[in-house]
Write a structure and sequence with these properties.
mainly beta; 9% helix; four-stranded antiparallel β-sheet; 3 helices
Length: 287
């Protein structure tokens, strides 16, 4: 199920009324079916031009009817999150890089950490990082774009949807669903990063606790600058709620060229254990 996104922050259009098998599938350009052991899932990826940027999307579909799939697709995403039975999960990443290529990636699945090859469309930096890390060696992408780009006119907004349990010891019964929009918008000469969301128990799962979860940022590049900006606007951190927003501001001249940089939001439990992560669109180092 693909969402439509524009650089001006236009809304997302989702397809509804599809069957469970359709919902679990991933179409895209690098579609692979994986039937490994007791696991049955599909992976794919595609790239969309959006204004001056590119939207790199990876998708994992769980074809099993009675079990949830824990998965980490190295560099591409999802990251340590679940795909419920007969569902699919898409992970969008914003990049300025236009030199798209197939990357011989690796996906980790199941609670025992089994791994299998999974090709995705990525950038030259993704390919280089994947090679240096040994395919299954890198979790989040850590490499910043080489290309500089102006801030997208009107900002950037993308749809996110992620599944994870509030209790790692009881994932099925405590599965949560978080969905919303994530992006950047021009603000006071720079931009504001935002993540606006709704969180609830997934379908009929009875025991998920939204209030046991906290959102925290991860900044592989320009860490100190971004952390200072984040905690200036989120002094008490960012506890998850049934409906909320996480925002912070970066100062600079919006007319300058900016460099897209890797960044992520992690979801952690009350004991600070990682539950899942999603990419965060972010710009740094204005020129």
């Amino acid at each position: 199920m693909k969402g439509l996104v524009t650089a001006a922050g236009a809304g997302v259009v989702l397809l509804v009324g599809v069957s469970a098998s359709q919902a679990a599938d991933c179409k895209g350009d690098t579609r692979q079916e994986h039937h490994v052991g007791n696991f049955n899932f599909v992976t794919s990826s595609w790239v969309e031009d959006v204004g001056t940027m590119r939207r790199y999307v990876s998708c994992v579909g769980n074809l099993d009817a009675n079990s949830d799939l824990l998965v980490t697709w190295y560099i591409a995403g999802p990251f340590k999150s679940y795909v419920p039975s007969e569902e699919s999960a898409e992970t969008p990443r914003m990049r300025a890089h236009t030199n798209t290529r197939p990357v011989a990636g690796c996906i980790q699945y199941g609670s025992s950490g089994e791994r299998t090859p999974a090709e995705f469309l990525g950038t030259a930096q993704d390919d280089d990082e994947n090679t240096k890390a040994g395919r299954c060696g890198a979790s989040y992408g850590q490499t910043e774009d080489v290309a500089l780009a102006p801030l997208p006119e009107g900002g950037w907004s993308d749809h996110v949807r992620v599944f994870f349990p509030s209790d790692l010891n009881n994932p099925s019964a405590t599965m949560l669903e978080v969905s919303g929009t994530i992006g950047v918008e021009p603000s006071d000469g720079g931009f504001q990063a935002f993540f606006r969301y709704a969180a609830d128990r997934f379908r009929d799962r009875p025991d998920g606790q939204v209030n046991d979860v906290t959102v925290r940022p991860i900044f592989p590049v320009e860490r100190d600058k971004f952390l200072a900006a984040f905690f200036l606007d989120n002094k008490g951190g960012a506890p998850l709620s049934s409906k909320g927003a996480v925002t912070f501001s970066i100062k600079g001249n919006a007319a300058n060229l900016w460099k897209p940089v890797p960044a992520y939001y992690e979801f952690v439990d009350k004991d600070n254990h990682l539950l899942a992560a999603i990419p965060m669109p972010l710009f740094g180092d204005p020129q």
